[in-house]
Amino acid sequence: MKYNFLGNTGLLVSELCFGTMTFGGTGLYEAIGKAQQKEVNEIMKTVVDSGINFIDTANVYSFGESESLLGQSIKDVGLDRNQLVIATKVRAFLNQGQNSGGLSRYHIFQSVDASLKRLQLDHIDILYVHGVDYHTPVEEIMRSLNDIVLSGKVRYVAVCNWPGWMVMKAMGIAENNSWNKFVGMQCFYSLAGRDIEREILPVAIDQNMGMMPWSPLAGGFLSGKFTRDNQNAEGSRRATFDFPPIDKEKAYNIIDVIIEIGKQHNVSAAQIALAWVRLQKGITSTIIGAKNNDQLLDNIKSTEITLSNDDLKKIDEVSALPAEYPGWIIDYQHRFR
To answer: What's the fold here for domain 3-334?
Structure first.
C-alpha cells in the first residue's frame, strides 16, 4: 500500500480509502450492503491489515448505523485510533426535524456532536460537507466549518458533490478571512463517469486539494458482472438501486475493453477499473467499499496492477468525454501558445 499527502496538509493517507456505506443496511442502504457488527469487525481487521489507514463514513449511511458500527469495531478489534484517518459528513436529514439537515451553523455543530457520539471518538479527522445547501450562504458555511475546527472537534474540512465554481468561491472566502480552507474533495469518478475532468478535478489540482473519488466502479456496473449479455446481474446493488446514473451503452463498450485487458493481466475487470482511477492525475485516495472480505481483498489487489501505455490508450479511447464548450475552443486556441 502506498501513501499520498492529502493536498498540502502534510497528512499521509493510503492510496485506497475504505468506505463504510455497506455497514448497517437500513432503508435504501439495504441494497448496498447489510454488514452487521461481527462482519464489520472482520472487514475492518482486513482493511487495517492491508495497510489502509483512511476510513470514510457519513452520518446518513444507514441513518447513523454505519458510524455506530464503525466506532464499535475500532474498540472490538483493538485498532489504534491514532493510526487511522477517519472522515464523516454533514448535510443530510436523518429525521423529520425542521433543522435536522442542511449546512447551517446550527446543524453543523449538532451533527458533529451526534457523529462523535456514534463513532465513540473525541474528534473527527476530516469533515466533509455532503452536498450543496443553497439556503445557507457559503460565507456562513465556511465560518461555521472554521469554528468547528477551532473547537478541536474536527481536524480538517473538505467538500463533497459541489460544483467547481462554488468550491472556488468558498476557497476565496476562506482565504480572505484567514479561515480553514477545504483540504480535499470527494466526487463521483469512474471510467463510466469522467465528468469531473472538465472543471472539478482541475480546481482540485490548481488549489492543491486532495481528490477522493467515490463509486469508482460506478455503483458496481464496472465490476464485470454486467455485460450486454447479462444486463441484470443477480446480487448486484445495481439490480435494486440503479445509481449513480451513467450512459449504459457507453459503459458496455468500456466493460468489453476492461474485461479483455483484465484477461491479459489475469485480474478482474473491477481491478482494471480501480487501477485506472488510481493512476489518474490529481487522485489522492480512491474510495472502495465491500460487502464481505472476499470482495474487499479483490479490490485491494488493484493496487498491484501496472497498466501499460497501450492499456491506458485503449481505455481512454473508449471512455473519453465528448468535447464540450469552452473546453474545445480552449484546446483549439492553446495550440498557438
So the answer is: TIM Barrel (3.20.20)
